[in-house]
């Protein structure tokens, strides 16, 4: 039997509970928005991730940078989904920025991989990777240093394989399409490649001309050594020695000193002592000046004739090195 007292208790209970229920329903504490959180918090977390990604980018840690950008991208995707009307333009801008950074980093990682294959002299795999990269990203990034670098590396690997027509196509693409100042180093490397091809083909006048172009107005370490070579060895004599392709590959890849000297002996036995000067040059280019100096001195210690190219190059290289140190 329902008494008046019980009715009063129910009414009192409802009076207490209903405002709470209404509050919960109004703010949807039990519903969807309770899981949303604040958009500002999610946005700040995403921005922090982009800043971390940017720091890794500056450190050239491509994989870690790309990972952070991918995390940030997911955060911005979540914000777009959960808060479609919140700061739409700002979120979209950051979302697009992350997409672009990830895409460009994917290209960079592939270029690094192709460079590694080039240094390891795995040219077939390197050529395949470069061509895949150009097919996938060539149009999107055609006006970037990344694609320009890919063409240079591709040309160099073709050249090391003796595929001169394909190499010239890649190098000439660089010279034709990338004329701005920011591409100067890529253009120089392409000219080096073309010069070496001309020399290998017996086109000595053309090779000499393009090497002189490189030297003019270029004060890089590579250009300075080219200047020394041309002082000591005419381009025509490079072919007679039959070792210049080995030297150039040694200077630009991870070929060991032992393998280099063995290749020199195979190509032209008797020049292994002269070839020591190029071990010094490789160390010099790598910034290991003291070690380079020891190799130059070895070439001047009496084991080589003063008329030999190893002696002459070592003498000029050591002189230039000492001038640089005393400046």
Walk me through what this model shows.
With 327 residues, this protein is mainly α. It folds into three domains: 39-119, Up-down Bundle (Methane Monooxygenase Hydroxylase, Chain G, domain 1); 122-217, Alpha Horseshoe (Serine Threonine Protein Phosphatase 5, Tetratricopeptide repeat); 219-327. The protein is 77% helix and 0% strand. The chain has helices spanning 4-27, 39-58, 62-82, 88-119, 123-137, 145-160, 164-177, 184-200, 204-215, 221-232, 235-241, 244-252, 257-267, 272-285, 289-299, 309-326. Helix 10 (221-232) runs antiparallel to helix 16 (309-326) and helix 12 (244-252) packs parallel to helix 14. It starts with a helix and ends with a helix. Mean pLDDT is 83; it is low at 20-34.
According to DSSP, the number of beta strands is 0
Range of helix content:
over 70%
Query: What percentage of amino acids are in beta strands?
Result: under 5%
Task: Please summarize the sheet with the most strands.
Answer: none
Number of domains: 3
* Total helical elements: 16
Shape: elongated
Low-confidence stretches: 20-34
Average pLDDT, all residues: 83
Order of helices and strands: HHHHHHHHHHHHHHHH
Whole-angstrom Rg: 32 Å
Q: Gap between N and C termini, in Å?
A: 110 Å
**Helix/strand structural class:** mainly alpha
Give a quick rundown of the structure:
The protein is mainly alpha-helical and 327 residues long. It has 16 helices and no strands. The protein has three domains: 81 residues, Methane Monooxygenase Hydroxylase, Chain G, domain 1 (Up-down Bundle), CATH 1.20.58; 96 residues, Tetratricopeptide repeat domain (Serine Threonine Protein Phosphatase 5, Tetratricopeptide repeat); 109 residues.
